[in-house]
Amino acid sequence: MFARFLPRSPHAEIYTQIRSLLTASIESQYVRVNHDEKSMKFPQIWLRDNCCCPECFHEGTQSRIYKFKVGVRAERVQALDDKSVQIEWNDRHTSVYNLKWLGERDFSPENRQKYIDEFYRLKHVFWGKEDFKKECKEFEFDEVMGTNEGLRKWMEALAIYGVALINNSPKEKTTARRLADRVGFIRKTHYGEEFSVMSKPDAKNYAYLSAPLPLHTDLPYYEYKPGLNLLHCFTQSESSGGQSLTADAFYVAERLKQKDPKSYEILTKVPVDWNDIGSEGGGEGFHSIYRSPMINFDADGRYNRINLSIPQRDSHFTVKLEEVIPWYEAYWKLIEILKEETTTFKLKEGQLLTFNNLRVLHGRTGYDDNETNVRHIIGVYLDWDIVYARWRVLKSGK
C-alpha cells in the first residue's frame, strides 16, 4: 500500500530507503506515525482540530479558526517525504503535518512530562535550611538588566528554586520598578504599584512595624495573588535586627507529608478564611477575603500555592465545628517543621531579594531605627504569567 506513493525515479531504491524511515497508518480512531524506531499515536479528532493549513489556522495570530463537524475521520494517510504526513479526511479536506511538529506534541508519558517540566512550568527543586546557600543563586544587577541571558537565567532560578539574590543595584527608589519593567509590568495591588516597608507611627499593615514579622506569604486574601515579590534593600538597619527569614514552604509541606500524612491531608483540604481590612495612603478603604487551604496544587498535582500569614488569618473560620481542632493540631505540626527549616541572613544595601510569593515564606527579625538610619525596603510584585511569557520568548531565542 505504501509503495504506490513512491515517486517514479531512476533513484527509486534510494527514495525507498528514505521513505522507510517514516510511515503512517490508520488504526481505528487513531493515526499511527512511525519514524526510525519511534512510534507515535494521535487521535484523529485531535489531528483534524489542529490542522495548520490557511483555511484552519491563522498564521499571524497563531490561532485556530476552523470548527470541524462531528463524525470527521481520516480516509487516507501517507508520508509525503521523510518530514511530513498527509491526511485526507471524509469532509474533503486535506491536512499536512510536519514530523517535528508531531514529535513535539507526542502523547507519550515521557514527552508530556518533559513539556510540563521544561516549558510549561520548570520543575521545582526543593530546599531546606542546610541547602539555602547552595540553591539561592546570586546575580549582578547589570547582568540581569543588560543581557537577555542574565535575565533568562535569573527567571529560571526563580522558577526552579523559588528564590534568588540580585547584587549591586543602584541606590535609587525606582530600582525595583526598573527590574519589574525589564520583565514586563508591575502587578498593582491595593498597596499601590510600589510599596515601602519601613516603620511607621500610624501603621495600617503589620509589616510597617519594627516588631518581628513572622514567616508568611503576601496577600493570601487575594484569589489571584501576585506570584513574585521583588524587595530592594534601600537602607538597612544598623542595629543587629532587621534580618531576613526565609523558608521553602513546598519543602516543608513535603516533610510534613512524610512525617504525618493525616495532618498533611487536613492542610490540603480544609479551607481557611484569609482577610485584610484597611486603607493605604489615604485612599478608599478595602476589605479583602479569600477562602483556600494552606497547601494547594495545580492541575498536574504539583504544589502551586501556599497560604500562610498569622496576621491575615481571619477570626471567621467557616468550616464544620469538628474540623477546627484537628486543623490547629495539623497547623502546629507544620509550624514545628517550619521552625527547623528557616534560614536567617541580613540583606545588604543594594541587594534585591526576589522570590516566589506562592512558595517561599519570608519574614524578618525586629529592629531599631534611629534618627539617621531608618530601615527601608522597597517592593513590587510581578505575576508568574508575565514572567513565564517573557522567559519562553527568551528560551526560544525570538
UniProtKB/TrEMBL annotation:
Pathway where it operates: Amine and polyamine biosynthesis; carnitine biosynthesis
Cofactor: L-ascorbate; Fe(2+)
Domain Gamma-butyrobetaine hydroxylase-like N-terminal: 27-102
Domain TauD/TfdA-like: 131-381
InterPro entries in the cross-refs: AlphaKG_dependent_hydroxylases, GBBH-like_N, GBBH-like_N_sf, TauD-like_sf, TauD/TfdA-like
Alphabetical UniProt keywords: Carnitine biosynthesis, Dioxygenase, Iron, Metal-binding, Oxidoreductase
A GO BP annotation: carnitine biosynthetic process
Short name of one Pfam family: TauD
UniProt KW Oxidoreductase keyword: yes
GO molecular function: 2-oxoglutarate-dependent dioxygenase activity; metal ion binding
GO CC annotations on file: mitochondrion
Family: Belongs to the gamma-BBH/TMLD family.
Descriptive protein name: Gamma-butyrobetaine dioxygenase
